[in-house]
Task: structure prediction
Amino acid sequence: MKVVVDKGIKSFKNFISILDGFNHIEFQYLETSEITKNNIKDAEILFVRSTTLINKALLDTTKIKIIGSATAGTDHIDQRYLKKNNIQWFYSPGSNALSVVNYVMASISYLNNNNLLSLNDVVGIVGYGNIGKKLKEILDFFSIKNVVYDPFLNHDFLSDINQIKDCDLISLHVPLTFNNPFSTFNLVDKAFLNAISNKTLINTSRGGVVDEKSLLENNNVSYIADVWINEPEPNKEILDYSILATPHIAGHSINGKLNGTINLISYLQKFLKIDKSVFNENNKKIRNFSESIKLSKPYSIHSYYSEYPIDKESSKFKTSYASNSNNYRKSFESCRANHFQRKDIEI
Result:
């Protein structure tokens, strides 16, 4: 059996080298750009990142029967095509949730350090999934007041969207959805932006959740963003407008990436029906390695900025983008590939 693995999937090859039960598997490691129909045609399993489009153009006439994505999103996967052609697939939801929360906390620390936000202000959380839950937990840990909105859940503590608009800072943690009663496309539209003038908005969800054109016209909302319309060539004007701008790397901590890798290996072990004792010993090795790179509990919210000086990442991104007006894509992808290395902090 042959398994093709994107070289960018963090430490996959290193893990496989210390684990047992894979001697009969042929692993081929390719750069993202090398993952083409011709190069994967004789493989049965393909492990990718979000940078590879999984669709008919890639898979038609190949032997691929299983797709694994090391990322939490599914925008790059043509689910209908996979279902129609009986190709199994899985991804890694929640793998980088803590990484995104660390990004938000680093942003809050930066704002507080620069007198742009008080720790007595109220934080609004839109979306109470893997990320929203962890963010609330950490805000509660630091006694930072917060309000949560999620129309799909029925918890007593949830608030309505108007209460969110009254918050001093709003952090978005929703998927990009269309044509349903609670679609998130342009969730933050002109009316929403007018209601939150002089407040701060953080977007780590998807570019289309925020109406960037209306945001620029409003010109009175402080914006922090990691995601953009038309990635990897977002509008330079919206980058310049943002207090902090980063190239879709909020979930790209060392731990977040490793969690995605571990998810792929776990699935592969189950698929191969590896002996239970070997499976358990492999998981022990993985767990010991993962625990060794986590940081200790934060002494304050400023621990997050100490680990991840987000303004430096932003400055690097904006400078690169400004100096590459003829090739914004190259600038975006280069900054994304060479982002600041950081570890997760867990309470």
